């Protein structure tokens, strides 16, 4: 099965073609207090800063009434923003580059993760004799949703081994218990997913890890540089019209990132919803230790991150190959720098 193109048929948002301009800082009340955020797989550590900001009322402290809609994967969350049902996406940075290739200008304004946290692994049940990536040809790979960051990472790993997305079947399995069940039942031969799902499968001895991006060192080894991951991004139109609201969102997220830097395991478990634990607190805490380094400590985009992300996409995705994409128009540190001068946990 060929990976679906998640941008097909999407209409450009009003103002999406605005050129990048210097961004105003919030100096007063938010222009709009009601903000709809779309996310794909909210229970994952990839999006943990968003959950913390919500559960600890950091958005409310900024005068915002935030409604978070959870989708099966990041590509579906993106569609919500492109279609106008969400103002902001909590999703993968590389999606802003894919959107720009479609002449839709979206911009990242606060980083949640400085490593993707995605793990590609094979099933010991259906692929007991796995030796190399080449063995994945003709196999079914479970991803959160086709077109999401999990399938992007898997496609890149395949490309490095001389395979393409057409050589495998990407199957959407979500980011929770459904993904675990799909692997355990033999519906998929391999899986690209995140914690706590992957640690749960590892602890059960059901997978063999092939590629791991939960640490900075592993991420740089896989991608050849810093690879930005989860972030908040919105259309350039939304940011231009709502700089105070954008600043308020950034303040809440930076506060969340700071809290996570010092949080104990028990504080974390007592903050997140019970359903996030997948029925096993010990596994959740183990997974937390695996990914803790991957979370951004301050919300800032690393200098080489956007270029690494674009190079990754260009390695396998025809949607960006040969397109005039300017990574500098897909992100800004301006709001985070402002937040870092004022935000305290």
UniProtKB/TrEMBL annotation:
Q: Report the Gene3D superfamilies cross-referenced here.
A: Periplasmic binding protein-like II
Its domain of life reads Bacteria
Q: Which UniProt keywords apply?
A: Signal
Record's subcellular location: Periplasm
In Swiss-Prot or TrEMBL terms, this protein is called NitT/TauT family transport system substrate-binding protein
The answer, when asked if Signal is one of the entry's keywords, is yes
Task: Please state which protein family the record places this protein in.
Answer: Belongs to the bacterial solute-binding protein SsuA/TauA family.
């Amino acid at each position: 099965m060929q990976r679906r193109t998640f941008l097909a048929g999407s209409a450009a948002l009003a103002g999406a073609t605005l050129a990048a301009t210097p961004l105003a800082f919030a100096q007063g009340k938010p222009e709009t207090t009601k903000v709809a955020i779309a996310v794909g797989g909210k229970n994952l550590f990839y999006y943990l800063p968003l959950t913390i900001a919500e559960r600890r009322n950091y958005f409310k402290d900024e005068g915002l009434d935030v409604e978070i809609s959870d989708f099966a994967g990041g590509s579906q969350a993106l569609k919500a923003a492109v279609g106008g049902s969400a103002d902001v996406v909590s999703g993968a940075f590389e999606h802003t580059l894919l959107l720009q290739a479609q002449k839709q200008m979206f911009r990242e304004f606060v980083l949640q993760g400085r490593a993707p946290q995605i793990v590609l692994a094979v099933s010991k049940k259906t692929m007991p004799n796995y030796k190399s990536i080449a063995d994945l040809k003709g196999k079914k790979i479970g991803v959160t949703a086709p077109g999401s960051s999990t399938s992007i990472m898997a496609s890149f790993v395949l490309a490095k081994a001389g395979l393409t997305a057409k050589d495998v079947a990407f199957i959407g399995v979500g980011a929770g218990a459904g993904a675990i069940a799909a692997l355990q039942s033999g519906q998929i031969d391999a899986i690209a997913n995140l914690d706590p799902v992957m640690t749960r499968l590892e602890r059960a001895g059901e997978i063999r890890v092939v590629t791991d991006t939960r640490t900075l060192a592993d991420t740089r080894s896989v991608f050849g540089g810093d690879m930005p991951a989860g972030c908040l991004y919105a259309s350039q139109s939304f940011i231009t019209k709502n700089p105070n609201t954008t600043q308020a969102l950034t303040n809440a997220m930076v506060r969340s990132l700071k809290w996570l830097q010092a949080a104990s395991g028990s504080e974390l478990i007592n903050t997140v919803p019970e359903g996030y634990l997948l029925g096993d607190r010990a596994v959740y805490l183990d997974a937390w230790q695996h990914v803790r380094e991957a979370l951004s400590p301050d919300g800032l985009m690393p200098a080489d991150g956007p270029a690494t992300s674009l190079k990754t996409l260009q390695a396998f995705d025809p949607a960006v190959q040969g397109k005039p994409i300017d990574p500098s128009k897909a992100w800004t540190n301006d709001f985070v720098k402002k937040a870092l001068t004022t935000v305290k946990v």
